[in-house]
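Look over this entry.
=====
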Amino acid sequence: VCAYLGKLKEMAICDLCIPIQRALRPKSQLGFTAGLMVKAANIMVTEKRGLAIEENDLVLYEFLDASCAFDKTLIPIMLRKAYQEGIDDDKFLYFLNMHKNSKKAIKWKGQRSELLDEQQGVRQGGSAAAEQYKSYSSSLITTLESLDNKNMPSSRENKNPKTNNHPTESTRHPTSVVAVADDTAPSSRDSNCLLYTSPSPRDLSTSR
């Protein structure tokens, strides 16, 4: 009975928090959001690739998958971001107490450890888990979307900061992002915009 009551309370708190937090999410985050199809992410990637091939243009993609993302979410950062987004009063105290009192044990070869304080991770399968993770990771998406080649060298070989070979406004190549939970796909026409994520972004426009 207690487990069911706890689930119902978590669902009720989430119903109060979602309207506050969801309005602040990047529009490119398509995961775990009612009314959005995960398949839309695939359509956006393939259509952009098809258009680039048709116009003989360049498009570079990175496909990023955070390893054990839900398990490595740092609870203090997650709580701070929730508070900054407007989750306060009893709603914040609920999540604070939920994670503050979390314990876990490790089972190995039939043995079980003592209870340990849990310092990271969200409760996968819980009503709040998806929204908590999207809140935690939203800054990654907004940072990637803010990258363009306006203030970056136009070639990798140019290491001299005094060389003024920056692109003009008409040749800016902003970075766009498609994200589904912890799977993120930034893309750009300029490889310099993706150097923060990988040294070798893939050119999909020539890959048939």
